[in-house]
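thread: overnight batch results

M.L. [08:02]
morning all. the overnight job finished for the chain we discussed friday. pasting input first so we're all looking at the same thing
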Amino acid sequence: MKPIIAITIGDFNGIGPEVALKAASSAAVRRICTPLLVGPLNVFEHVRSDLKLKLKLEKSSLPLLKSAVTPVIDTGDGIWADVQYGKVAKTAGKNAGVAIERAVELCVKVQAAAMVTAPVSKEALNLAGYNFPGQTEMIALLSRSQRVAMMLVSNSMRVGLVTIHIGIKSILEHISKEKIVEKIHIISDSLKKDFQIKKPRIAVLALNPHAGEKGLIGTEDDELITPAIEEVKSTGINAAGPFPADAFFGKQSHTGYDAVVAMYHDQGLIPLKMSSFGKGVNFSAGLNIIRTSPDHGTAYDIAGKGTANTSSMIEAIKLAVTISGNWQRHD
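M.L. [08:03]
and the structure it wrote out:
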């Protein structure tokens, strides 16, 4: 039996519904899973009509029985929806948030094997009262997961982050030896369970240029990161570093490791997206449920035009299916 993958609507003023609908109708997706759209049915129908997509949608409840239609868990009851492509709106944020809540519930109740989230606007979510820096943190809370690490996955590398959506000036406040140790453990466990790598090799990046140059350009690498690496190594984790990020990626050193741990968002994601933009996948490692998402945002500038590339969304669904299978084998 094919796994059910819950796909949220994302921000309906962006490309969320478009990439969700296109991916759900993809032969590559339908071959490996049963896509279950989560969001207001009337909005999905509106976008489907706008884009002239040949896809039959039907409000559904579980268990799913029909294969000729694309089932939709309709979250639109009582929520006003007014699609205005390209605009940040409270209503779009509210609909996106409710869809996330419902998809998490489906996964927690094991009615869906995994959830894939279409891109949202953090500003719209906040306007709607969802005060989280991103979907990762929101889903961790809703799923009652005690730990999570954001990981970006592509064909060429996996990058895990110590800090996620934090302003540059505040990064140091959120980095400690204990937090680095925690994230390395989460990523190591994920590589074993989610990716079936028995003895993962993990590279850890330095925070400062040249890894601090023995304290001349900062002491954090010597005082926080090196001790963290030594601690995880003492528990049997194969970790190395801290490596200066520029030389590490410049020499293609990531090819010798199963994952790279970066200290902050752009440090790890710029090289990954340069090598595989549009095909990368955001994976929330360490959660009690499986959640992936495409590696791009709402793309307000092209919303409603029907030109959104679905490659990353399809890759996110494929990874969710792969990990759900690995979980079954692991258990």
